[in-house]
Specification:
Number of strands: 19
Strand content: 35-45%
Order of helices and strands: EEEEEEEEEEHHEEEEEEEHEEH
Distance between the termini: 22 Å
CATH architecture of one domain: Sandwich
Number of helices: 4
Largest sheet: 9 strands, antiparallel
CATH class of one domain: Mainly Beta
Helix content: 10-25%
Amino acid sequence: MSQWVSVPNLAGLLTGFLETDFLIATVNAPMTIGEIQLGLGTAPGGTDAITIKISSAENGAGGVSTTITGTDTEATTSAAHALNTGDKIYLYISAISGTPMDLYGTIRLDISGAEAGVTPAYTTLTRVKWVLGIPGSYTTDDTRLNELIVGVSSAFDEYMGESFVSTDRTEYQGGGINESLILNYYPLASDLSNMAVTEDTTSLTRNTDYIVEGYGLYRIADATTTIARTWAYGTRNIKIVYKSGRDFIPDDIQMAATEEVARSYNLANTDGGIGGRLGLASKSPEAGGSWSFTPDGWSPNTLAIVKRYRRWR
């Protein structure tokens, strides 16, 4: 089985992210990094390049390198990098020249048996340090902040009952009665380009032979009028290859995770004093007045956000 996890979206000029470890995910079962797909909003240009390492160690040690050069904006690298339970996956920009901007991408993780293979990181070191007002050049607490990102991300997954990863699926169904087939796993990934459907021995084309609506596949006879027809009669004669799950991390989840990591950091940071604590609910302006904060659990804003994504089991 393979799962796909998003790499942190790094916005803007990437030279500011050189030699910084960005946590991607925590490994919950033995697996292998099988493929890395990375893209840029703006290419390096000319003969310039950017080299990115995906590794289970900080500073890109022993990792898999991907280089995007010149006018290219995308690169795909095949890999066979083994990971063990408890490992962390980091993104590290090891070299850069030119003006590459806006990094994004996904990583394919090949897992033997275990469904819940990874816990994605729902925020980045850069986001957290920006909220806390910590300069990027101050790296003393980077490891501590990454550990807090792990803890908050794991807590989010436990509460929501799912992770923001997508999983490769292959299932077989039988046709002959209905025009629709309901898939066993949902939600569907936002990118349906890799979906493949075979009816008996015939490969079908999406939006010509069938359409996808919600979690169902509907057989059609005409791509213009979408006239319905039934699937070919048989037992397990229809093979469907697709991705299920959430293949991106929503902005509100990233915002909530950033806030909670910052809150946790400030609660443990006695040097910051009371004024450095997040979650101020009220205060008295008079001299010697009182300060009131939200409880030390998640903020009401965070709870409202994660509740939207909670899957009842």
